[in-house]
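Example S7 (structure tokens).
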């Protein structure tokens, strides 16, 4: 099999999306004054749904993120309440696709936590999560919700393991242990029956998640994989990475054969990570570079050249990460097909960027808004774990977004175990992350040892006194009594 070299330079081809353009929201619709995290971890640090915008923030101790209702655009108050229960930096956040008030977060403190945000947003700092999940031995860098199941969450840690959590019980149900280095990204196919991962060991894997079995594995020397995304139901994957000459590159793969990419193409010579975003409804691929100000977009087809370059959105402000609005939150009246929320760290700003198909008619455009994945789960966690796979429950965007039923997230009631020693819960005591924390813990343990030694000495003296009193009583003659 030969690798097809393609050029994304414009060549004429009839496409309804060839004139798609990006439109930045007016300043009053942006979110300003946000202390966006300066963490260098390669993630988006942003999550969006039709109700809320969540952003990981800088914090003096532990980790935190803020949750802002989308209706509250503008400048943020410096004392705006935060979600601040983690004891380490927050590395990833993701909204539940079926419960819009439920968000998951993972952190350097080795935990994954699930939070329930009240209607209307936070009024005070939130420190208590509805679920705290401990199973990783090192920091947790990635989390992903299952695309069709209401209570299944995947987490990937720096211990090279992926844990599958059943949130109906609050326990891990499977550990995928096939990676030999840090997992860089995870992506599901449409029905969630396959999981694709990219890893720092330069290998691309397709995994059957319930069994943990590796179905396909690629280690292609000319393309070092960084990020991977499934291309809907096309049975294809797209990866971003670096070529042998350290140029940024994309590659298209057949999920049935990962021996060699179908297409690979150099993008540019910049060094920032390329984040891929795929819209299965329009078959459009968006490429956004970390530290870049531009977003390139392409159309994916089943015939050669497979990847057709469309256009590029340019901006002078570099992006740290991007959040993506789900389809049911888009403005269909404006022919909006995708919306990014761009994090501009230097300005403490979040800019919505709408990708719009120019149309003259004001009527609903059915050709660019097919039936799309809705907000109703196709399966329960127990059904998925039993081996059932189902496609997402589809919804139409024609009459606006109407939730079909009011689902309620119920966290399992878990009996809390504890081992308290001198007021310190040893099971909740997270290992130190910095040298200062290590020193504090060392001195605290020294004080505890000193106190225990003094207590032991006091008790030894008391024991000797009691022994002497006992001997005196034995030596007293009966006449003296």
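Recovered sequence:
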């Amino acid at each position: 099999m030969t690798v097809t070299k393609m050029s994304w330079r414009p060549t004429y081809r009839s496409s309804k999306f060839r004139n798609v353009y990006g439109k930045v929201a007016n300043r009053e619709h942006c979110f300003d004054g946000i202390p966006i995290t300066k963490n260098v971890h390669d993630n988006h640090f942003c999550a969006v749904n039709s109700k809320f915008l969540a952003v990981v923030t800088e914090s003096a101790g532990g980790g935190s993120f803020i949750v802002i209702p989308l209706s509250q655009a503008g400048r943020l108050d410096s004392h705006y309440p935060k979600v601040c229960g983690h004891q380490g930096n927050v590395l990833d956040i993701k909204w539940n696709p079926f419960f819009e008030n439920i968000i998951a977060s993972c952190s350097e403190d080795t935990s994954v936590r699930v939070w329930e945000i009240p209607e209307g947003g936070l009024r005070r700092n939130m420190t208590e999560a509805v679920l705290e999940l401990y199973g990783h031995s090192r920091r947790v860098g990635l989390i992903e919700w299952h695309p069709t199941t209401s209570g299944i969450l995947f987490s990937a840690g720096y211990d090279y393991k992926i844990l599958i959590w059943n949130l109906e019980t609050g326990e891990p149900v499977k550990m995928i242990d096939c990676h030999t280095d840090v997992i860089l990204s995870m992506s599901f196919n449409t029905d969630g029956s396959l999981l694709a991962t990219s890893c720092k060991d330069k290998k691309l894997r397709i995994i059957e998640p319930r069994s943990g079995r590796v179905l396909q594995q690629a280690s292609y020397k000319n393309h070092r994989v960084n990020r991977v995304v499934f291309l809907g139901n096309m049975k294809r994957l797209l990866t971003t990475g670096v070529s042998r000459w350290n140029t940024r590159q994309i590659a298209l793969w057949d999920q049935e054969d990962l021996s060699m990419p179908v297409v690979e193409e150099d993008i540019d010579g910049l060094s920032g990570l390329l984040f891929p975003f795929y819209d299965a409804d329009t078959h459009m691929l968006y490429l956004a570079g970390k530290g870049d100000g531009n977003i390139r977009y392409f159309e994916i087809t089943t015939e050669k050249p497979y990847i057709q370059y469309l256009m590029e959105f340019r901006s002078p402000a570099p992006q740290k990460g991007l959040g993506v609005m789900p389809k049911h939150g888009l403005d269909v009246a404006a022919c909006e097909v995708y919306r990014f929320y761009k994090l501009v760290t230097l300005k403490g700003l979040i800019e919505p960027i709408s990708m719009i198909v120019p149309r003259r008619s004001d009527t609903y455009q059915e050709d660019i808004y097919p039936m799309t994945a809705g907000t109703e789960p196709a399966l329960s966690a127990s059904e998925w774990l039993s081996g059932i796979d189902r496609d997402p429950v589809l919804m139409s965007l024609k009459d606006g977004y109407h939730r079909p039923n009011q689902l309620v997230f119920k966290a399992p009631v878990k009996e809390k175990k504890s081992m308290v020693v001198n007021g310190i819960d040893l099971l909740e005591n997270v290992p130190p992350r910095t040298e200062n924390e290590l020193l504090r813990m060392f001195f605290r343990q020294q004080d505890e040892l000193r106190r225990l030694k003094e207590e032991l000495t006091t008790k030894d003296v008391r024991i000797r006194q009691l022994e002497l009193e006992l001997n005196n009583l034995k030596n007293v003659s009966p006449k003296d009594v």
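Notes on this example. Confidence is low (pLDDT under 50) at residues 416-422, 424-428.
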